[in-house]
Amino acid sequence: MKAWNLLKLSENPVLSEVNDPQLWDNNHIMADISHSALNHRDVWIIKGKYPSIKLPCVLGSDASVLTGSGKYIINPGLEWGDEESFQSDSFHILGMPGQGTFAEKIVVPENSLFEVPDHLTMAEAAAIPLAGVTAYRALIKRAGAKQGDKVLITGAGGGVSLWAVQFALALGCEVYVTSGKEAKIEKALALGVAGGVCTIENDWHKSLLQKSGGFDIIIDSIMGNTFPQLIKICNAGAKICFYGASAGNTQDFSPHIIFWRQISLLGSTMGSPEDFSEMMAFIKQNKIKPVIDRVYSFSQLPDALERMQTSAQFGKIILEH
Amino acid sequence: MKAWNLLKLSENPVLSEVNDPQLWDNNHIMADISHSALNHRDVWIIKGKYPSIKLPCVLGSDASVLTGSGKYIINPGLEWGDEESFQSDSFHILGMPGQGTFAEKIVVPENSLFEVPDHLTMAEAAAIPLAGVTAYRALIKRAGAKQGDKVLITGAGGGVSLWAVQFALALGCEVYVTSGKEAKIEKALALGVAGGVCTIENDWHKSLLQKSGGFDIIIDSIMGNTFPQLIKICNAGAKICFYGASAGNTQDFSPHIIFWRQISLLGSTMGSPEDFSEMMAFIKQNKIKPVIDRVYSFSQLPDALERMQTSAQFGKIILEH
């Protein structure tokens, strides 16, 4: 089969002829990949900014697939383990070190397959897995979002943040966003958020406080020195759930306001099989359509990666295989 | 009546003759104070390190009291508000700005009174209120401690930390402590903790990790630059609950390990009426006796304050009125 093989760090993967994956177990199934989707993880691995990289590898964590019995998406998380509250040491996801979805075929455990909801195309379905489960766990399982909560989602445009926006809207939350680009705020408003602020503004956090009156929940993956601002716009009892830290460490973490205002800071990453299954039911029940940025052909992976590296996208970037 | 009146910051309160408190409402009751107890809050107010200090004032948040109908302790938290997850803006506690318990009598709402458990003396009962409810909320309501959890409680010796130790032991947790003084570790071992480490040791956190294998829950009020060490000895899915920050801000807060290991950082302060009521039931059911450091006579408040200021104590410091 054909697959995008990552041979060297800091270079694009190379489209190559590789051996088909092997069906090595009765609990596994061979599937033809219909569509895949990009995640920041793919970019970080290519740049060498990820722990324990093994080369060569076929990247890609998301896919919609066809098997003899129908249309599915794959839960890319494998061997989560027995605890709902954290993943086991053997937890891993599709795409490095095991073969990922930037390929024609894949072999996965049969219980990783979930039927594509009727209201979604195969391209839309491929936008769900990793970003969807990360957003679902962060917003709903960790932060416990519920109807009426005022929710801020930072960095609108990325796959996880837009799933968080859509899940929060479906729950009946009052949703606000930030972005470094005004055009992305406009697109988020079109999705139904109550307001947004461009972070190139001075005092962006004060504008947000004025618009919203303060937040019950903040979903973030930026951290760094934006974190002290986020704390200032929290309501008492608020929860800040973060699943990444693209701006790195925070240099001035003040515990006093956090304990006095009974704030919770919740780290979260990806999600358990239970989270995945609940998310699929939630998407079906609320007929949520993912935000697709652009659909590239399978051969255009380098262009698709370029778009993600420059943060030009608003929504998931999809490959049609 | 006689009361210890704080007239100037950085000076000890003065024992003076003041007017009796007034019974101004049918829902309130006048009580004779049997015993009171000191809290760090009293010391911070005297030092001027507390927000919105109003002078003169009578400090003291804890008391066991006698009324016509029996023996009680007082929940010192007033006007918590309707939300369990945080206190209202009008929440306040006995002892600045309202009259505190370093006095002969006090007027409090009748529903602030809780019967002294049969297994406790009046001196022991006075050790419960503020420290007990703070520990109960932090350990049990916020961090959700349960049987079998490995729990670290830092700064063993203070009132809150020793209540947290005793509640955790009563739950059946495996409990460890830290202290800056070896003698306090010895006393904690005598209470039944599984182990302890003196923080003047280099690499104290590595010793703790070796002894315990890692913690599910950490209860802390030190923060500052001990915090990065605490993170390193957390198990995946761990909860760090902090109710103070005697070492101040943390200069290097790294979010990556927190989200990857699904750790929760939970701010907590004092407790709601529901927390107080549940704590009283828990103390009764488990027949927990507080750790009393020393009982001073009412006239010895300056000596008692001196003992607390030098962190010499192990357990609550009590005044017999």
CATH fold topology of the largest domain in chain A:
Quinone Oxidoreductase, Chain A, domain 1
Task: Kindly estimate the percentage of residues of chain A that lie in beta strands according to DSSP.
Answer: 25-35%
**Helix coverage percent of residues of chain A?**
25-40%
The separation of the N and C termini of chain A measures 12 Å
Q: What does this protein structure show overall?
A:
The structure is a homodimer. With about 325 residues, chain A is α/β, with parallel strands linked by helices. Chain A folds into two domains: about 1-130 and about 290-320, Quinone Oxidoreductase, Chain A, domain 1 (Alpha-Beta Complex), CATH 3.90.180.10; about 135-265, Rossmann fold (3-Layer(aba) Sandwich), CATH 3.40.50.720. In chain A, about 30% of the residues lie in helices and about 25% in strands. The first copy, chain A, contains ten helices and 18 strands. In chain A, the strands form four sheets. In chain A, strands 3, 5, 6, 9, 10, 17 and 18 form a seven-stranded mixed sheet that branches. Chain A has a six-stranded parallel sheet with strand order 13-12-11-14-15-16, sandwiched between helices. Chain A has a three-stranded antiparallel sheet with strand order 2-1-4, with no helix packed on it. In chain A, strand 17 (about 290-295), helix 10 and strand 18 (about 315-320) form a beta-alpha-beta unit. In chain A, helix 3 crosses helix 4 (about 160-170). Chain A starts with a strand and ends with a strand. The mean pLDDT of chain A is about 95. Strand 16 (about 265) of chain A pairs antiparallel with strand 16 of chain B, so a sheet runs across the interface.
